[in-house]
Amino acid sequence: MLARRFLSTSASLPPTIRQLLAAPPSTYAPAIHVNGWVKSIRRQKKVAFAVITDGSSEPGLQAVFTDINLAKQLTNGASVKLRGELVDSRGAGQAKELQVAEAEVHGECDPETYPMQKQALTVEYLRDHCHLRARTREIGAMLRLRDSTTRAIHNYFEVGLPLLSSDVQSHYRQDNGFIHVHTPIITSNDCEGAGETFRIAPSSSEPSCRSASPPSSDAKPSDYFNHPAYLTVSSQLHLEAVATALSRVYTLSPCFRAERSQTSRHLAEFWMLEAEWAFTSSLDELCTVVENAIRHVLRTHSTSPDMDALWKQHPSAPAQARRDELHSYASASRPWTRLTYTDAINILSAHHAATGAFVFPPVWGSGLQSEHERWLAEQHARGPVFVTDYPAAMKPFYMRMNDGCAPDRQTAACFDLLVPGMGELVGGSLREERAGLLEKALERHGLDKSDYGWYLDLRRYGGAPHGGFGLGFERLISWMSGIESVRECIAMPRWAGRMLL
Ligand code: 4AD
Asked: Which residues lie within the region annotated Disordered (predicted)?
């Protein structure tokens, strides 16, 4: 009864096509309205068929016009409002169809000039038309996958796989105790120290915001904040500040990196899931939280029509095989491999000595190359693998130094999660909570201590052992869906040399 009211009450939002297709027949109002865009149209002598989509699901809704005059104005891409009756379909392939009684065109679409013609459109063509590409099946499915992944992430931190022991969990109604916070996009420092920040300034020396007074009336653009300002490369340092008050926090935020790498894994603007929590001294605990988070997301998608549709794009990896593979990673009975960087180098070196497999011989003290990362995940671990305790010299200043290392083998308490087909998906570490050692690390990295006074304060006043991680959201989408490049895992990609709108 409730559903019937929902479907027919004009004051409420009308149902989407996904909702209509999922609703049991008893809930249909006698006549319904559907708004959407014409995906395809096929005219016969006495009848016309159109597929209408509103982006809520794929495939759209089949509309049948027994009065072909009603379909006259319809062209691919036009936006329309149809009224009719939803009935069980007589055709194969869909359960329901709309018998159209009235049709109205909201917006015409010239079939001669419409850039999204029906023939196969190349990835590059779609990148050139990214204002229109959300209309394609793949990008539509990807955007819905981003949505469901975001929801799964929030759900994980709220109630997801147990992070707490089961007795505590039941007492607190499965509350994992993480608090979602918002961190600034404009920052005063380069968290990763890799020199990949975008520096920002107002577009003119005039104040661009009326309510804010500039530092002085003749301020130059760069003086707006009285300090150099950058777009954030990572929310970590700010999350650390909040974690020293709220204990367990996370955020899903945009990050910006002036990367020059033209790879399928790098964007100039991407989204990162970052979590940070106090009172941990255990790298294993960090890895477990990451492992459980990704497992939770994979399980949420174990039956996802959008994921199925995306997998089907890749005939080399049949959808069922891909589903089985991800399902096996989601299973708690198969813990993900964890090994130290030193062990990884030894394993890679032995393999290289036996087969000469790598272009870059693995060497202790050098970063793992993409070919090493993928071999470790795909051939050695045959699944996601955490590589821990990298040499400190190749890592940012904030990572906690491991105790008891040989002077020439100093490592940091950190990890990267490498996954098959992708390489690095997550990076994290314990943070250096000892103020004295942190100051030395800032010096070693040539960073100005005065810029990090507030960060040192977090250690000076009630500092606590803590740690966290960052997960590349587009890389997660790419890995789960089989979409080859992260450039197709975000609506409007930006990378060096490309920003169309
Ligand atoms: O390893 P990264 O640089 O770690 C950090 O930024 C930490 N401060 C995070 C933390 O501990 N809170 O980046 C984390 C992840 C990478 O593993 C990768 O998945 C993704 O962010 N990432 C990118 N994704 C797309 N385009 C880029 N340019 C990326 N750079 C990093």
From this structure: 200-220
What gap in Å lies between CA 470 and CA 222, rounded to an integer?
30
Q: Is 288 exposed, middle or buried (0-12, 13-18, 19+ CB in 10 A)?
A: middle
Ligand 1 close to Cβ of residue 427 (< 6 A):
yes
* One-character DSSP codes across 134-160: GGSHHHHHHHHHHHHHHHHHHHHHHH-
Ligand 1 and 197: CB distance under 6 A: no
Q: Which residues contact 314 (CB under 8 A, 6 or more apart)?
A: 322, 482
The strand pairing partners of 61, in sequence order, are 52
Matching residue, tokens 């955020």: 251
d(CA 243, CA 430): 13
Query: Does residue 470 have its Cβ closer than 6 Å to ligand 1?
Result: yes
At residue 53, the 3 state secondary structure works out as strand
The SS3 assignment for 250 reads: strand
190 lines ligand 1 (CB under 6 A): no
Q: Is the CB of 61 under 6 A from ligand 1?
A: no
Domains of the chain, CATH where assigned: 2-114 (2.40.50.140), 137-204+221-499 (3.30.930.10)
- ipTM over the 0.95 cut-off: yes
Distance 428 CA to ligand 1 centre (A): 9
List of long-range contacts for 354-360, beta carbons under 8 Å, 24+ apart: none
Strand partners, 269: 256
Residue of the CA atom closest to atom 6 of ligand 1:
234
Which secondary structure element, helix H or strand E, spans residue 236, and what is its range? helix 236-246
pTM of the model: 0.92
Q: What is the pLDDT of residues 133-167, one digit of tens each?
A: 999 999 999 999 999 999 999 999 987 555 555 55
